[in-house]
Design goal:
The structure is a single chain. This protein has about 475 residues and is of the alpha/beta class. Helix content is about 30%, strand content about 25%. The protein contains twelve helices and 21 strands. Strands 1-2-4-5-6-7-8-15 form an eight-stranded parallel barrel, surrounded by eight helices. β13 and β14 form a beta hairpin. α5 packs across α6 and α11 runs parallel beside α12. The termini are far apart.
Amino acid sequence: MFKVALLVAFMATMAANVQAEKKIVCYFGSWTVYRPGNGQIAIEDINPRLCTHMIYSFIGINTDGTVRILDAWADLADGGGKNGFGKFTSLAKQNDVKALIAIGGWNEGSTKFSQVVSNPQTRSRLVQDVVSFLQRYNFDGFDVDWEYPNQRGGQPSDKENFVALLRELRQAFDSRGYILSVAVGAAEKSASQSYIINQVGQYAHLINLMTYDMNGSWNKVTGINAPLYASDSEQGEQAKLNVDASVRYWLSNGAPADKLIVGIPSYGRTFTLANPSNNGVGAPATGPGNAGPYTREAGMLGYNEICESVSQGGWTIRREDQQRVPYAVKGNQWVGYDDVDSVREKCDYITSRNLGGAMMWSIETDDFRGICGLKYPLLTKMNEVLRGIVPQPPNPPPNPPPTPKPTPAPPGPPPSGLCNKEGYVRDPNDCSIFYYCQNVQGQWKMIQFHCPAGTAFDPSIVACNYKDNVPGC
């Protein structure tokens, strides 16, 4: 009996370890710091406990094979900039999360990548500049988001040259401990044009499948952004535009299962219906749906915009039973998206196929403020299913520093006048001490905290940091 109990306990431990090994890759779109209202996100709003890897997006590429910083004011501290790179990497390291930087994206296109990697000299220069960039800005790895080799102005040799780039990056990275990640077109129609899949799998540590944008307003009929499965009504190439078909294609072409990271979108694709009375999946559409108040882009809505709008009423929500995802209709507006239930089912699918984990594009359109309830509901559900953890309640700041029990300070405004708004403030005489200021019926209440030995409170990340990294301490 004891042996049986021991075996059961061992198996449970092994299962928990396997679950804990799943990756949660969080892409962050750095330009979204400029969005208005509740859609504006700061790096301090990111909850790193919900991620195993955080990817800052994007930097660009120059035709001479050097890296290009796209928004120096947002990314760097120079000249009073917002220091996005520094805040992002500090937040990750404070919470034992890997911080990567992504190059490329849709707007960067394909032509410059194709030109640079086709020449061994400029390709080598790119590898060297990437290593220097990672060292200079303290990132843990690099994500190649070339959209897409041999497409959008590329050439057939891109497939081999993409592998050569990954091979040379991996050779330079291994001795330094850097992570090599790729974001790839997922569906067979795109992937077959762009990748030698088994060789991509040989060199990349993580293969982030962009299993979304399967349908959108470029079509003449409504369609779900990221179906899990095909429906019976779909035939030919259309039946391959879903998560399951994409995963099966990559696996069948030699991608290692434990490197495949399934993309889950925190946004939906929208349409304007030709006839509001004909509003199912596949209904005729005249074009993209109306732009949202935060993303301000016709044809898409962030999950945060969807949940806020739905909570205001007037929408009818339905689920596509075979594709396993919801869609919502209001008048002539139609959106297909992912919610907590479809995220759970996709994560169960990831577990059932022993895949590496899930990624979100992108965290700033999850309900990161908790306007509709729980903060980061989609990302939280991914963690619950894949990592078996329920993140801490979202009331404290996203990355609260490790501290002992707080010691309340006397009520009322302190002599120094430190409190003039709610939030955290550092003690002017001791960098290791900081306070939370709370307005209680017109009186400032202060709760005192102490940073661990050797660290100081860093207002730039609202957390304890190594003293050498904290100005003025």
